[in-house]
From TrEMBL:
Signal peptide: none
Annotated Translation initiation factor 3 C-terminal domain residues: 84-169
Family in the record: Belongs to the IF-3 family.
GO molecular function: translation initiation factor activity
Species, as recorded: Dehalobacterium formicoaceticum
Official protein name in the record: Translation initiation factor IF-3
Assigned keywords, A-Z: Cytoplasm, Initiation factor, Protein biosynthesis
InterPro entries, per database record: T_IF-3_C_sf, T_IF-3_N_sf, Translation_initiation_fac3_CS, Translation_initiation_fac_3, Translation_initiation_fac_3_C, Translation_initiation_fac_3_N
Keyword Cytoplasm on entry: yes
Keyword Cytoplasm belongs to the record: yes
Protein's cellular compartments: Cytoplasm
Length: 171
């Protein structure tokens, strides 16, 4: 649970709570006034850790220290996650071989850096009546890049564009 949603001390507005001590020991269901008094005597905060429970579960802890540790854990989790971006390579159905290889090299570079690649074939005018050319181009791109990628989404015609998504192979 996100620490911003937790209610502390006088913010808790229920007649009685399930009380948990500072070391995690269960002390049963007691009136809120008594729980607040015990927390004040120990110089700690009464924090509502499970508001959905009946009665709500409250624990004695140093709330400032708890929030600091929570934010530290969130930063650590954020540091370990990998953000996957989608790079796009745009082609036309009547592309020349050299231009195709240049686009394939760019896509290979994106895949090696760990990004997904969206291959888009743009049809203009009457070219859209030949979707087979676009499908052949997508197949050729997938075969060219099969060493570094797998096809996540097969070629599909959407309006005047045909798209295919390639993901980098796991090592």
């Amino acid at each position: 649970m996100i620490s911003k949603d937790l209610r502390i001390n006088e913010e808790i507005r229920v007649p009685e709570v399930r009380f948990v001590g500072a070391e995690g020991e269960q002390l049963g269901v007691i009136p809120i006034k008594q729980a607040l008094k015990i927390a004040a005597e120990k110089g700690l905060d009464l924090v509502e850790v499970a508001p959905a429970a009946r009665p709500p579960v409250c624990k004695i802890m140093d709330y400032g220290k708890y929030r600091f540790e929570q934010s530290k854990r969130e930063k650590e989790a954020k540091k370990n996650q990998k953000i996957i971006t989608i790079k796009e390579v745009k082609l036309r159905p009547n592309i020349e071989e050299h231009d195709f290889m240049t686009k394939a090299k760019n896509a290979e570079k994106f895949l090696k850096s760990g990004d997904k690649v969206k291959v888009t074939i743009m049809f203009r005018g009457r070219e859209v009546t030949h979707p087979d050319l676009g499908k052949q181009l997508c197949t050729k791109m997938a075969e060219t890049l099969q060493e570094w990628s797998t096809v996540e989404k097969m070629p599909k015609l959407e309006g005047k564009n045909m798209t295919m998504i390639l993901t980098p192979k796991q090592n």
